[in-house]
Design a protein that fits this description.
Length: 153
């Protein structure tokens, strides 16, 4: 359980940051500005460098937000789900998405993200990273820990 609690949040945050970067900011990954307003297609090396940068940002968020969220919310939710014998994959994934949403909302409130209404409207992809990362974290936790097998013992 320790391995799942340590690995899942940082791996999920790394993966979701990379995926969201490709979907939301493709121009930052797949293009390079040559001069003011003139762009060219990025080389494989430049694309890889950009993706590594976003992955490292995700890793940092996994440590800063993911580990505390796992300790405060994820492990207690896991214990609760085992106790009520709801250890199937879908329940874990949905619980993770809900917890990830809560974590992102707390983060947004804590960083004053809701003070400016325009920033809320333009921050949809950032807010989406919470449920996505929570879902991926719970899925990876489930795959590593396999809580469905706990009940069989």
């Amino acid at each position: 359980m320790i391995a799942a609690s340590l690995v899942a949040p940082i791996l999920a945050a790394t993966l979701s940051a990379t995926l969201l970067a490709m979907l939301v900011f493709p121009e930052l990954i797949f293009q390079v500005e040559v001069s003011s307003g003139v762009y060219r297609d990025a080389s494989i090396h430049e694309i890889a460098t950009s993706l590594v940068g976003f992955a490292l940002m995700g890793l940092a968020f996994g440590v800063i937000l993911g580990w505390p969220a796992m300790i405060i919310g994820g492990v207690p939710v896991h214990a609760f789900l085992v106790r009520i014998r709801r250890t199937d994959f879908l329940v874990y994934a949905l619980s993770g998405a809900l917890l990830g949403t809560l974590v992102m909302l707390v983060y947004f409130v804590g960083t004053s993200g809701f003070r400016d209404p325009v920033s809320v409207l333009t921050s949809g992809p950032i807010l989406l990273s919470g449920p996505l990362t929570g879902l991926l974290t719970a899925a990876q936790f489930w795959l590593i820990r396999r809580p469905d097998r706990i009940l069989m013992s």
